[in-house]
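User: My collaborator and I are trying to settle a disagreement about how two of our proteins should look. Neither of us wants to argue from intuition anymore, so we agreed to look at predicted structures for both before our next call. Could you fold the first one, then the second, and keep them clearly separated?

Assistant: That sounds like a sensible way to settle it. I'll keep them separate. The first protein:
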Amino acid sequence: KQWYQRRVAITAGGGAKGEPGKSGLPGKAAENIQLNPYIVAFHSQKNVAPKCLEGMTELWTGYSFMFVDVSKNVAGQSLSAPGSCWREFYVNNMMECRQTFCTNTKAEYSFWLSTAIEDSMTHDSYPQSTSYAEDPELVKRFISRCAVCVSDYKLMAVHSYTKDLPTTEAASLSQSGWEIAYSGYSFSFQTGAGRGFGSAFQGHGSCLKLFSPINIAQTNGQDVRWVSTNFKSYWIMDYSHLDGMNPYEAAYDEDWSVVTKQDRDAFIAKRLGKCYVMKKTKKAIALRGFYYADPDA
């Protein structure tokens, strides 16, 4: 009874509702949140790993893998994608598995992006057929390195299809929040032992920073080679010099020497297609708040 009376007294003694308190101080601005970051690969075409672009975070470095040809079946990786950057370089990297057994196959050829030809070099400067088992360091010296990076912004390649950089296209894109990350040369695809693989033209892997007529290293068993009549790289050319030509004439088959630095410089200046890799500006990203990595954004 006493407990009940005390509870009633406490309840009955409550005062009137007070006035609302003062407003608190403004909170900190929300941070931009990337809910689905872009994972991208970069290839140096040198025997040292490239750096990630500003604002990116490096995940790993490795060796630049292009594609594998097994019994005339080809599977490859876009140079834009992280799957093209293997942490280790090694030959005999595939096994053929059937219902009851797995085995190595002599029909396996793997292809790796090579180091680009240097100014003082010709194709004869690359090693001849070399055994990886006998001299692994010599082989690795001529294999391109790569880096895989996490990015908060999208990358896109823009090609001019001419010998000039696509400045008009870049200026137009800048109006919608894009800026130039770097320039390069318009790479299409590479063949090895008769078949090949390439990168989609919108991917940044199709815009290589260096032009090189020696573009791959082939492994078969322990044998590694860089020079072969089977190896062909394909690049976008300047279309303007075709104006007025008869498509049935042999002029399309004109040869350009790329043996010496002077030869290569002339080819680059007069025939080779140029490109920019564009990135979304920080300002454009900030305006979006939090977002998903929309491939069409």
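The second protein, kept apart from the first:
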Amino acid sequence: TGGETGGETGGETGGETGGETGGETGGETGGETGGETGGETGGETGGETGGETGGACVKTPKTVAQCKLPGQRLAGAQLSPGYYDNIASYEACVALCQTIAGCEAVVYKAAPKRCFVKSGAYRKTPEPYADSTSAAMCCIRGDCDCPAEEGAGGEGAGGEGAGGEGGNKGKSIAECTLNGINLPGAQLSPGYYEGFPTVASCVAKCQATPGCKAIGHKSEAKRCFVKGAGYGAARADTSGRPTASLELCCLDGTC
């Protein structure tokens, strides 16, 4: 434990924290400066580009699996409390990030089941790092190359100049969750999966399932229903059991 934890923590915290502290300090200084400069420059550029070219940015969302960066980390900019333990998988780590305000990237370490959550000031160039898997939320949303999003790193008005975005921004899992609602039909084989305790974990499963467009979640049974295109209009659940639904298009703002 001392070896692994000391090695792991020293490797992670010293590597991640050290790299991340160096990443935080360098990530904060460099992140703040980069945030301010990136905010001002990015904001101005985002504003100008977004304003002038309005609509030049085309979002191309990807699945959680497609955005997976095995053996790499996105250093710096850890959000408080820095990391979460007992996170079962990379997919669960991504799902956790999607429920945390301001989380823009993750680094997941399978051996200690540890999930590092990061703000948008993380270093955008992945670094080789053993036993780590990373992902950027902008990859999943498909807006990494959108000037307005980059400009939003500081307080620049890049988002204001988003021209052709038309305010069509994605939302968090919490904002998109429809409690007490069913989206009937269109279940994908095998219909549902067991062992998914939260809506977020069910969403991650859907994002990793080809053709999945929506989910239904039963919290008591920890059951996740995955649905393809063609599911029915939202309607009140009458089962008497806690039920929630969510459309993936809500997350990326394409509904």
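Some points you might bring to the call about the second protein. Residues 1-54, 148-168 have pLDDT under 50 and may be disordered. The radius of gyration is 19 Å.
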